[in-house]
Amino acid sequence: MKSTREKITLNFRGIRYKTYASTLQAFPGTKLSRLTGPQEASTEFDYDPNTGEFFFDRDTRVFEEVLNYCRTKHLHCPQYICKSVLEEELAFWEISEAALAPCCWQRLSDMESQQEDLALWEDSKDEDDQALLAQVGRGNNSCRAQWQPRIWTLFEKPFSSGSAKVLAAISLVFNIGICILFIKKADVEIEFFVYGHEYNSTDTVLNEIHKYFPYLIPLEFFCILWFLFEFSVRLTFCPNKKKFLTSPLNIADFISLFPIFIELCTHGQAWLGFVRALYTLKLLKILKLIEIPLMFQVLSYTSRSVFREIFIFIIIFIFESLFFGILMFYTEVLYPVPESYFESISSCIWWAVITLTTVGYGDSYPITEFSQVIAACAALCGVLTIVIPIPIFLIKFKGYYDAAVIKERRKRKMEQAAMLSS
């Protein structure tokens, strides 16, 4: 063991540090403390007896903080250093991250959150369809394997070729047309069911539509045949059928194929209007004609990632609605007034929902003083319930958005490097 006042020289990539042996002995059991043992140190470390130096090919920024830690007993995190580098260097010097000062934990936590967000965003991105098609077609010389990438690209990549642009334009016309037909048929149905006939009338809505607008049903049927053809082709040639069948837009496409056939079998029913409302979802296919902004992709993933927190606040909101609704009902029962708007628990729960969401239609409101106090408490709880989840969502969104931007920049740099090397 060296004397405590003896000086030890450490060489880090040509940068020399001199310190007392007593400083390195501050934390026994660490790698620095073993430097003070001449016999062990000479065999364990790269020691030059001619210069009397220990050589280390390590990061000097972290070492300076480690050396200060031995001197001051306070370990700080260097600025502008990656968390993985910090962890690696601390592990090399056999110092726990728990020794970091509280003032550095916030920065360390931010770095860890950024890395986690980047990793989660990387994992969330599914395998590229074109790469999957190439993998499936590799080593397969069948006719289907040769045509699958072309047909899939034709239907899914509207800007891949002139034919794809024409097909996308035709599909867009059909999607807009089915929505116009839905609106026109809905007007006729309202006139038939509400103003013209009773539900048990011997006439049918199909007869009414065919009488005044004979072209609506054939046009709708023709549009559905196009959608059926398009859906069948896309399903047949898609590289990942599980991903295709679980897509919300594809599910809506599949369900929207049936209303016209059900209507022909049931001779028209008013409730089919709810199912045909799915036709309007087809307008979302317009997004395929443009590149979906990164912000919308991140927004979709953020909504899924905070589903647990949102679900908890929904449960809290339901509890508050029931609590204040029932409380308001029994308050009005105990203190009845002639002009009371609360005649049942369901109406009170409706009032509680409107109050908690700070909408306040004004169709029902408390009259007595005690019920007004309850209403004030409900409004305050509603504000707190709505405000608290917003920062959670925004923080998550910012983290994922930053991670997505980093990934896109890195992707562009890799593409540029590949172009330069080719």
Task: Jot down its keywords.
422 residues; mainly alpha; Potassium Channel Kv1.1, Chain A; Helix Hairpins; four-stranded mixed β-sheet; 5% strand
Describe this structure in words.
The chain is mainly alpha-helical and 422 residues long. It has three domains: 7-123, Potassium Channel Kv1.1, Chain A, CATH 3.30.710; 142-291; 292-422, Helix Hairpins (Orthogonal Bundle). 66% of the residues lie in helices and 5% in strands. It contains 20 helices and four strands. It has a four-stranded mixed β-sheet. A hairpin with a 2-residue loop joins strand 1 (7-12) and strand 2. Helix 17 (307-334) runs antiparallel to helix 19. It starts with 6 loop residues before the first strand and ends with a helix. The model is unreliable at 193-203 (pLDDT under 50).
Please report the total strand number as a whole number: 4
In helices, the fraction of residues equals: 55-70%
Could you tell me the mean pLDDT? 77
Helix segment count? Answer: 20
Mass-distribution shape: flat
The separation of the N and C termini measures 59 Å
Give me the side-by-side strand order of the main sheet. Answer: 2-1-4-3
| SSE topology string | EEHHHEEHHHHHHHHHHHHHHHHH
Helices and strands: which structural class? mainly alpha
Instruction: Kindly give the count of domains.
Output: 3
Largest sheet: 4 strands, mixed
Strand content: under 5%
Poorly predicted regions are 193-203
**Rg for CA atoms:** 35 Å
Membrane topology: Multi-pass membrane protein
Protein name: Potassium voltage-gated channel subfamily C member 1-like
GO cellular component, one term: presynaptic membrane
Domain BTB: 6-110
